[in-house]
Amino acid sequence: MKFTEEHEWLRVEGDLVIVGITEHASEQLGDVVFVELPAIGRAVTKDDEVVVIESVKAASDILAPLDGEIVEVNEVLADEPGKVNEDPMGDAWFFKIKPADMAQLDDYMDEAAYQKYIG
Amino acid sequence: MSDLRVTPLNALHRELGAKMVPFAGYDMPVQYPAGVMKEHLHCRARAGLFDVSHMGQVILRAPGGYPEVARAMEALVPVDLVGLGEMRQRYGFFTNAAGGILDDLMLANRGDHMFVVVNAACKAEDGAHMRAALPGVAVEEITDRALLALQGPAAEAVLAALVPGVAAMRFMDVGIFASDFGELWISRSGYTGEDGYEISVSEAQAEPLARALLSNEAVQPIGLGARDSLRLEAGLCLYGHDIDTATTPVEASLSWAIQKVRRSGGDRAGGFPGAARILEELRNGAARLRVGLRPEGRAPMRDGTPLFAAETGGAAVGHVTSGGFGPTIEAPMSMGYVPRDLATTGTELFGEVRGKRLPLRVVKLPFTPANFKR
Predict the structure, then answer these.
(1) Complex ipTM value
(2) Under CATH, which architecture does the B1-284 domain have?
(3) What residues of chain A have any CB closer than 8 angstroms to a CB in chain B?
(4) Which end of chain A is more exposed for a tag (fewer CB within 10 A), N or C?
(5) Dihedral sign (CA B230, B51, B118, B371)
(6) Is some CB atom of chain A closer than 8 A to the CB atom of B17?
(7) A109 is a domain residue
(8) Interval B155-209: pLDDT, tens
């Protein structure tokens, strides 16, 4: 699993990458009350805003970590945004992306580096 | 950090695992480990303890006692203070010459003097304002007492176990009670829409009292995050957001706080800053009004969201002044200002969020019914 400085986790599944937010990020956000997911089939460029998360405190974005195409979204989150707090590293993944270039993953931190990053 | 002031409960907040943030110059708990949502729901279901020691407590005295202070204060506050019963409290606001609101506050008749509680962010200006405008009235800021709020349906049982006399109080009664925690100044009021109390206690006894209240299993500590969602569900204004120097009490839908005796035709009509405008608006209505707004989707519409009369085209007709998610109503909720002809309950409007105009409806306030012991 890889981690971004924006507190996303990336897990490779065949030729897709599953994207979610870390436990640390979900704690910092507070209770999530609204999730807006991207359209399936959307072509994205790294750092595009693809997901909006609203917590009881504020709105924040998830950026596309890679160039590619959104191929699946976790519709459950639209109805049950609280899952982001309950299981951020598991059931509450946001989307699956088909990357244009898997090598982009190499730019990101491994778990040890991420743990050090969040201190 | 070094510039931030602390309340007498600062160490307790940290011990309880609070996340601390700067608020109105104070280091305050925004939430505890339970989080905003659970804290909010707990307060509506049982009882929540809030540290509101950052708010200003002020005693006003004059040789003629409460009646003299009340007459003087009526020159600053468009509320019937002369007619306020002994050991009763009333909500009011300081107005400016343009009819805007300088601060909102609670005012109590404590027999031989007046006791007021003002907002933390405004307390220095309020003190200066009263000193300048109330010759003959001694203005004493109380800086050696904390202020706690205990709110929720279990509040009466919890506090009465320590101070039996509070059970007999009605909404907006005030009392001075001897207790194991020294003299307590208690009002049956709050800012959550729930029954409950605000308790002024000496600095030294604040932590022992807070611990005694928290030792009751019905009580959880509540941070500023849930305090905000609770007051918004209750339809209550936050100074600096929903009301400020550019909003009049009539625009703010606070006309209920201006009693007949201070209105045109009343025995003590006018005589407060901005009276010409405020009395005119009371007679003929204001051009715009604060209303409750319910977004139809799940997306919250927060402070600053522009409001439109139509899904496309046209200029903004107003904006949201408070908005978020209501844990009790399990839906987003907002308040904002709209022109009078768009302020009717049921009117459909559109709020622009991230470039998209999303529907919302004007609704009656509060979002959750008040639970006061009248």
Answers:
(1) 0.86
(2) 2-Layer Sandwich (3.30)
(3) 30-31, 33-34, 36, 52, 54, 56-59, 78, 81-82, 85
(4) C
(5) positive
(6) no
(7) no
(8) 999 999 999 999 999 999 999 999 999 999 999 999 999 999 999 999 999 999 9
